Amino acid sequence: MIFKRVGEGRPYPDHGLSSREWAQLPPRQVRLDELVTTRDTLDLATLLDDDSTFYGDLFAHVVEWDGDLYLETGLHRALRAALQQRAMLHARVHHTGATA
Fold first, then answer.
1. Which of 23, 35, 65, 66 has its CA 20 to 30 A from that of 11?
2. What beta strand segments (E) does the chain contain?
3. Which among 85, 83, 37 has a CA at the least distance from the CA of 60?
4. How far is CA 96 from the centre of its chain?
5. β-sheet bridge partners, residue 69
6. Domains in the chain, start-ordered, CATH in brackets?
């Protein structure tokens, strides 16, 4: 299995981070098998586009909440990493809730 779990929506409260605030978080590596997705569909053209900078950030956005890492944006990047047989993804991680 690529991800820890495929989720349906965001179980955590709205964090309210702007794009600028996300950009201030330093990227770090996270394991794909530790991520819970917040959506279960993606645009295949986005996944296969070599020049994709979907959502305007080069890094996926992950929210750590209640002991889990939720992949908020960057599903196409995570799947591309998995297709390239990489187990890690560079992401910006925001800590909120019980794990903050």
1. 23
2. 5-6, 27-31, 35-37, 60-65, 68-73, 88-96
3. 37
4. 15
5. 35, 64
6. 25-42+52-99 (3.90.1530.10)
In this predicted structure, the answer to whether residue 28 has a pLDDT above a threshold of 70 is: yes
Mean pLDDT of the residues in the chain: 86
CB 30 within 8 A of CB 62: yes
In the sheet with 68-73, reading across from the earlier edge strand, the strands are: 5-6, 35-37, 68-73, 60-65, 88-96, 27-31
Pick from 52, 61, 58, 55: which is nearest to 10 by CA? 61
End-to-end CA gap in the chain: 28
Supply 63's token pair: 């929210």
pLDDT at 57 over 50: yes
Stated pTM of the model: 0.83
